[in-house]
Sequence to fold (353 residues):
Amino acid sequence: MGEPQTDMRGSSSHGHPHFTFGVIADIQYADKPDGLSGWKTMRYYSQSCLHLQEAITKWNAEDIRPTFVLQLGDIIDGCNKRGEKSEASLEMVLTMINTAKMPFHHIWGNHEFYNFTRDYLMDSKLNTTWLEDRRQDELDPRSEGSSDNKDYYAYHFSPHSKFRIIVIDTYDLSVLGRKETSDGHRKSLAFLDSSQYDFNVVPPVGTQGFHLLEFNGGLGKEQLAWLDDVLTYSDKNGERVIIAGHIPIHPKAKRSLCLAWNYGEILRTLQSHESVVCYFAGHDHSGGYYRDSHGIHHITMEGVIESPPGTNAFGTVFVYEDGLLLRGRGRVKDRFLPYQGKKEHCDVSMCQK
Ligand SMILES: [Zn+2]
Fold:
């Protein structure tokens, strides 16, 4: 809907953008020949870093330089672990990212946990919580909203006075990454025990518990409460919120088995806040899109790793007064994503700052 036409400076019938940002998912770099995945899809390992380089070159050259990039997870492939190349491959990709003229916010996917432990990631360059903004009420470490000492990797920041981006950890509940003796692992097993699951069986899509698979995960109670708290703040302050995580959370926004374990709880949390505009995910390399009953846009980005030579999969999001324009490259479609129609209380003079 809408027409995704913009001029060279990003202006369009929607006005001039408040800011822009880049999105990219599932680079899955590995120094190995192209080949079929376990799902019989073609993976272009030798192309993935060339695709990333092209994305960075394009973002660096845009007339309105993106303020930041959301890297939606699975930055290197799990096969690096078997060849003991995890650290070298990560360093290679991060060296390339260092040529970007804007910061990258890194999200963690299942392939991060195939290569590294959660403790390792927390101390690595893939931990970008240093880019977070604290709200005034979070600066007091005794406050409930404080993000200190969290057992999950999630944070938020505000690139504009009326917009907030929230990075969530969809492997907070997971059998990947955490020590088996940890509280988080115990809570994850307890969640699975309360549901029907069998990691040895790949059930048909749509059957009970079809998505309760090892390569998916979810949000624990503490993270859901934290997310609810941040969104309550955004509602009160008339902010529009864009959320990003690795795993899709709406059954109609993906094509495969990729869906968060407790997607219903996550969806209900998002849908109970008028501030939420859009949720970006990766994980399902074929991509997907759905606008839910509350007007929230669910974008699943096509994966770089399954983009043949001569194509690509990334995008730049232009944040306008009336909606987001996703300008896709390669396999990613252009889309205009209007905001929900319940922001009339928003002070227009404030929004145009
Ligand atoms: Zn993934």
Remarks:
- Residues 343-353 have pLDDT under 50 and may be disordered.
